[in-house]
Amino acid sequence: MGKNKEKIKQLESLRSAITTMGGEARVEKQHEKGKLSARERLDLLFDQGTFRELDMYMKHRSSNFGLDKTEIKADGVVIGHGLVEGRPVFAYSQDFTSRGGSLGEQHAAKICKVMDLAQKAGCPVIGINDSGGARVEEGVDALKGYGEIFFRNSRCSGVIPQISAIMGPCAGGAVYSPAMTDFIFMVKNTSHMFITGPSVIKTVTGEDTTFEELGGALVHNTKSGNAHFACEDDKDAIEHIKELLHFLPSNNMGEPPRVDPMDDPQRECTKLDSIIPDNAKEPYDMKEVIREILDDGDLFETHELYARNAITGFGRLNGRAVGILANQPLTLAGCLDIDASDKLSRFIRTCDAFNIPMITFCDVPGYLPGLEQEWGGIIRHGAKLLWSYAEATVPKLTVVTRKNYGGAYIAMNSRHLGADMVFAWPSAQIAVMGAQGAVEIIGNYRKAIKESSDPEAARLDAINEYEEQFNNPYRAAERGYVDDVIKPSETRIRLIDALEVMSTKRDSLPPKKHGNVPL
């Protein structure tokens, strides 16, 4: 019995030594930078007392060059599982205090193990990234480790939610794993992502830049679109991750969590009856429309700072999780461009992969014209949006609030791309183009304007006639392309009814290995 007690005591001592990781001095340096340690982050993420660490005792190979006399506790990464608000979740957290959180062969093996377990269990996996990159002393073994992580990112994609939190440096090959996951959270001022750092860029191109300018949280949230959220600090990022999990199922075979609604499903949204300006050129805030309709006005927006002419996010209707996609008239009049097409397409595929019904709100005058857009590949990027809607098999609902013109009408979840139900407000304008452009093209109008003694008055008459006859929702309703023209105040009620009746929707794609999406 004495020997057992001694062994238990040795175990406790060993655990205590390992959990200090790089030591108190290095943890204090993390705190000075406004960062938490790897274990502190996991303590915030998981319900108290539920985290179970795995592979605590794993070590790097001592035969690696320059590391034979070096100890890297837990090989620089903490992995395990626990409960997040009662739900099983797997996670890994890189520890910058242990040799900069550098990734070597065994470090990668631990991450791969937790990803494999998450996929087998059908649970979300959360990666907290804070690493100096590949461990140079381990050479190609470190590179192999990255490759095996990427392989699992691909295999897990669309099967379990993968969430990345960038809470420190993330450079070189390390950036590709987060880029392959579903959502990326960054922390302002303390997290950075880039392929090559400022010093290399200076040497190769002569450009002067800083870590923040090159790959800071706001850069990737506003310019590149690589990140979905810019958080104030580590704690704020973890709180946002927990909120995101409220809308996601544990895996692609499950349904998103449903909550008991506090908001009345029969509530009319009277504010919406007067939200559309009389002047068709005057913008309004589509987020006001969306919040008025959703339960408790709660919209959890994703990619909020990127491509602001489009809106994506999650909300609830009668307690049921829904994905929201919309045009935003306040930015670029809600036009579709390259960035908006990518943003919307990615979100559609995420919702479809995880069985989240989608609601699309349309007010779009068309695709953004110009050389920059054409040379940048708007045709290819715009095709992604068409593809994504057409491929999605979850319930798909559409509400047309105002403009819905041309190819953009088709692209924004029209009946022709598989929308299950399409509703339009009386203010909806569904046509090939706006009246001003149409009267310059249609022969009868053009001739009447040209032959008139007062061309400007004739043009105004033609515009009024076109708007009355064509630029309305009723022509589309006559053809069955719009299921009903409704009062704006009825929108919440009609969407809840439609979601309920379509909750048992069954749809499937033709047998194939995969489609060839225009990437």
Short description:
The chain has 519 residues and is of the alpha/beta class.
Secondary structure layout plus pairing:
Layout: H1 2-19, H2 24-32, H3 38-45, E1 52-54, E2 77-84, E3 87-94, H4 105-121, E4 125-129, H5 140-156, E5 162-166, E6 169-171, H6 176-179, E7 183-187, E8 192-194, H7 198-205, H8 211-215, H9 217-224, E9 229-231, H10 234-245, H11 286-293, E10 300-302, E11 310-317, E12 320-327, H12 338-353, E13 358-364, H13 371-375, H14 378-391, E14 396-405, H15 406-411, E15 421-424, E16 429-431, H16 435-438, H17 443-451, H18 455-469, H19 474-478, E17 484-485, H20 491-501
Parallel strand pairs: 3-4, 4-5, 5-7, 6-8, 7-9, 12-13, 13-14, 14-15, 14-16, 15-17
Antiparallel strand pairs: 1-2, 2-3, 10-11, 11-12
Helix pairs in contact: 4-5, 12-14, 17-18
Description:
- The strands form three sheets. Strands 10, 11, 12, 13, 14, 15, 16 and 17 form an eight-stranded mixed beta sheet that branches.
- Helix 4 (105-121) runs parallel beside helix 5 (140-156) and helix 12 packs parallel to helix 14 (378-391).
- The longest helix is centred in the first third of the chain and has 18 residues, at 2-19.
- This protein has three domains: 21-245, Alpha-Beta Complex (2-enoyl-CoA Hydratase, Chain A, domain 1); 270-433 and 472-501, 2-enoyl-CoA Hydratase, Chain A, domain 1 (Alpha-Beta Complex); 435-470, no CATH class.
- The chain is of the alpha/beta class.
- 38% of the residues lie in helices and 17% in strands.
- The mean pLDDT is 91.
- It has helices at 2-19, 24-32, 38-45, 105-121, 140-156, 176-179, 198-205, 211-215, 217-224, 234-245, 286-293, 338-353, 371-375, 378-391, 406-411, 435-438, 443-451, 455-469, 474-478, 491-501, and strands at residues 52-54, 77-84, 87-94, 125-129, 162-166, 169-171, 183-187, 192-194, 229-231, 300-302, 310-317, 320-327, 358-364, 396-405, 421-424, 429-431, 484-485.
